[in-house]
Amino acid sequence: MNSYEQESSVSDHSSNRDECIFVETSFPTNSADESSTELNHSSNESPSRLNRAESDHSPDTGEEPRRPLDSECCGSGCSPCVFDLYDRDLAAWRRRRLRQPELATTSASPLRPDRFTALTLTSITALSDSASLYRFSLPAGTSLCLPPGGHLRLRADDAGRSVTRAYTPVSPPDAQGYFEVYIRLYPSGAMSSCVRRWRVGQTALWSGPFGEYRPRPADRRLVLLAAGTGVAPFVNLVRAAMEDEDSETRLTLLLAVRRLQDVFPRDQLAQWASYWNFTYQLFVSGAGEGTDGAEPRYGEPVRWRRLQERDVREVALQSAAGSTRYLVCGTRSNSVNVLRRWIG
């Protein structure tokens, strides 16, 4: 299957093939921009876990991080593994205690990264024949306080086996009393089989938040490349940039999907495009125009083909003076490996 004909699985990365990773890299041009590449496991990762600073940006509860259970490791060689994250958070916790022994023992978020909390599913909104928006309630007056690029972990039981996956909420980080996740169901996905049984009123186990990504002050432009549900970690990243009146960073999103009906968040993308510093392009590879039950809207930037190297390089040539950084979310085996070859 072509790399842009397969959806990424922020929603369900149950095998190595379906893992989604987040790549941060600068394009190798003739400019003097410093080149760097960072590779982190995420969930659509986008199937995405975004990079965060090791020190003070980890969730601060004042308590020692809990060591993960052996069952929380999927055994697929994820990088970082849940145990890598534990070691990082434990080191950061120890450093904070040395600097601030009086740290408070409570967190602004109702969730904790070191334990799972049962939250009630309040609504399911179908967005296509395979993807839905799932809303969960939070205690009254609370919000996730999720930084851009942050994600949560979901734990469920599949035929007596504990399954843990990472998801990036797409609701506003300061939404009061709820949060929403965008999940695509796959026929053979372990977590998909659990989510498929969800009904409104049931509870699910969540922990977090984990991770974050904040643009560097020197970044004049961010180019966001996503495959399928890999767009999820970018939603609040773009939202934060659009709400920051002092931000001078330009953002360009290149989103590859199989069908036009798989584009998310379609309405929000059109709204953001009215801002001076956001543009996007849609690449639909699995169906021709009008063949998947969805029609392009007036002015919608749709290209009925796969995202190609020339598209990425075309954006690179349009970059203004200053640093341009490329953020990629997609499957490890296909889209991200291809994109890494394209952009260095």
UniProtKB/TrEMBL annotation:
Region (Disordered): 1-72
SUPFAM superfamilies noted in UniProt: Ferredoxin reductase-like, C-terminal NADP-linked domain (SSF52343), Riboflavin synthase domain-like (SSF63380)
Cofactors (names): FAD
Polar residues biased stretches: 1-13, 26-49
Pfam families (alphabetical): FAD_binding_6, NAD_binding_1, Oxidored-like
Oxidoreductase as UniProt keyword: yes
Catalytic activity: 2 Fe(III)-[cytochrome b5] + NADH = 2 Fe(II)-[cytochrome b5] + NAD(+) + H(+)
Keyword entries, A-Z: FAD, Flavoprotein, NAD, Oxidoreductase
Basic and acidic residues: compositionally biased ranges: 51-70
Family matches, as InterPro entries: CBR-like, Cbr1-like_FAD-bd_dom, FAD-bd_FR_type, Flavoprot_Pyr_Nucl_cyt_Rdtase, FNR_nucleotide-bd, Oxidoreductase-like_N, OxRdtase_FAD/NAD-bd, Riboflavin_synthase-like_b-brl
FAD-binding FR-type domain residues: 114-216
Chain residues that bind FAD: 165, 167, 191-192
Enzyme Commission identifier(s): 1.6.2.2
Protein family membership: Belongs to the flavoprotein pyridine nucleotide cytochrome reductase family.
The keyword Oxidoreductase is assigned to this record: yes
Gene Ontology MF terms: cytochrome-b5 reductase activity, acting on NADH
Protein name: NADH-cytochrome b5 reductase
PROSITE patterns: FAD_FR
